[in-house]
Amino acid sequence: MSPCLCALYSRRFARGFTLVELAIIVVMIGVIAGLILPALAKARQNAQKATAVQCVDNGRSIGAAFQKYAQDHDGALVPATRPKLGQKEEENWTELLNGYVKNDDVWHCPGCRSGKHGHFGVGYNRHLSKLGKMAAIHLPDETVAFGDTGEIANPEEPNPDRWREVLHTSSDEPRKPALIFETPSNADWKTRPNRMVNRHLGRASVIFADGHVELKRVRAVGFEFKAGDERALWDNQ
Q1: Fewest C-beta in 10 Å: which of 25, 64, 101, 118?
Q2: Contact at 8 Å (CB) between 82 and 96?
Q3: What are phi and psi of 235, to 5 degrees?
Q4: Alpha helices of 73-133 — where are they, by DSSP H?
Q5: Which string of b and e fits 168-185 if b means at least 16 CB within 10 Å?
Q6: H-helix or E-strand spanning residue 31
């Protein structure tokens, strides 16, 4: 009479796997990982590319709104903030430009992952916001007006491509949105944490004063250079 199959299986598992069987299992796991991991990496990269494209599209809407505001206000640049009529509160530049965009989601960078505290992810150039008139921007196609912005952990780092964005979670204390990025024209520039950040495949979505948008490394904006230097794209000169 043949032995019980259950008994055969129990004896087989009781003795464990042979080295050959273990080697085969390891090879199979390696093959499966070799197939899955590249696919996951490609899917992640495609998602990041889609996010970058969406941010560039949003940037075009912001650039157009920036231009239209100036046209409707005798060449005046949208201020960073201004007092609301008859109120003590202020309204920021996103509220002032909101009437010029079709969807207020344009203020929310799709790659911004900083919790639920109103961190839009797009900032206005503080230096430009103080100029008053569009005519003060001498080279609008070479002057950065807006870009991906966040609070960074290392504001004294001299290389802008090494600035590390602080990603706030929903459990953090509520914080004001980083709607302004700082520039070297401010005396306390080195201690202010709101800066442009590389958020899309090592680049930032950069909106120029003439309305066009590019994906550029933050270092290419020239924050390590003083006002008046042709490499300082944050400056109006």
Answers
A1: 25
A2: yes
A3: -90, 150
A4: 93-97, 126-129
A5: beeeeeeeebbbbbbbbb
A6: helix 19-72
